[in-house]
Design brief:
By secondary structure, this protein is an alpha/beta fold. Helix content is about 50%, strand content about 15%. The chain has ten helices and seven strands. It starts with a strand and ends with a helix. Bound molecules: NADP nicotinamide-adenine-dinucleotide phosphate.
């Protein structure tokens, strides 16, 4: 049984991944959809050409890893692709925030991504891929999004290291590093109307980002940064001191 696992499937980029995967891989035996809002996942499942399994998990809760582990052990699928897309941000200085808000980003963006990947890997084979959603925020620290950018730096670093580990098994790992996209993320992170930088930056179309990322992950690419503007930023962030980058790119 060949399956895809997609986290953060109920909104934004996750829905775009769902459209891309079901269109490009109509022969999959199932796509497992993970997010908290079950109703939304059920609506997606109802209209899907690929059989769909709805897993309404809160990925910040360790119990969801136990349930996923048991389900994988029971069904022993071949996981053709794992798309770790679930994530959240928060625009605020750490000192003006509270620990549950700040640590939730670590729990979802890092801990859950690591747990789900580790659980899925034994069920992946040559030709499978892991696609991790990082961000342009992974290239350099961003004050006012300090924890978010740190979590995405983890995702990028984790993806590169894991890719090296899995080369011999012919399993690719791709990190996609998008700039801003008009999704619920902006409201959840309390960015809308509070960041001049987010008003200036060019936005990406989530459908295009997801589809290209799926294609490149299957082709064996390591990192995908949509838009020339952000490819240039990625190079700048490698060349310039991060103290300067943080002054130039204030969120
Ligand atoms: N939008 C941007 O500007 C932007 C830019 C760069 C990178 N990204 C990254 O892109 C990814 C997708 O974000 P998006 O823009 O599509 O945001 P979004 O519209 O807010 O979607 C986030 C998804 O994550 C799920 N999620 C949130 N908390 C969860 C939890 N505790 N357990 C399980 N699932 C959870 C949400 O579903 P439920 O609420 O139903 O659980 C939703 O499906 C994230 O990793 C984000 O960091 C976004």
């Amino acid at each position: 049984m060949n399956i895809a696992i997609l986290t953060g499937a109920s909104a934004g980029l996750g829905k775009s991944f769902f459209r891309s995967v079901t269109a490009r891989y109509p022969d999959l035996d199932a796509i497992w959809l993970i997010a908290r809002r079950e109703e939304r996942l059920r609506e997606m499942a109802a209209g899907s050409a690929v059989p769909t399994v709805v897993l309404p998990f809160d990925l910040t809760d360790s119990a969801s890893y136990e349930t996923l582990s048991a389900r994988l052990a029971a069904e022993k699928p071949c996981v053709k692709m794992l798309i770790n897309n679930a994530g959240l941000g928060q625009l605020d200085n750490v000192a003006d925030s509270d620990w549950p808000t700040q640590s939730r980003m670590v729990d979802l963006n890092c801990r859950a991504l690591t747990a789900v990947t580790t659980l899925a890997l034994p069920y992946m084979a040559a030709g499978s891929f892991v696609l991790n959603v990082a961000s342009i925020a992974s290239f350099a620290p961003n004050a006012r999004m300090t924890v978010y950018s740190s979590t995405k730096a983890y995702v990028l670093s984790f993806s590169k290291g894991l890719r090296e580990e899995l080369k011999a098994k012919k399993i690719n790992v791709l990190a996609v590093c998008p700039g801003p996209m008009k999704t619920e993320f902006l409201e959840v992170a309390d960015i809308t109307g509070r960041s001049p930088m987010f008003k200036l930056l060019p936005y990406s179309d989530p459908d295009k980002v997801a589809d290209r990322a799926v294609v490149l992950a299957a082709k064996g690419r390591a990192v995908y940064t949509p838009r020339l503007f952000f490819k240039f930023y990625r190079i700048l962030a490698k060349l310039l001191p991060h103290s300067l980058i943080m002054k130039l790119c204030k969120t």
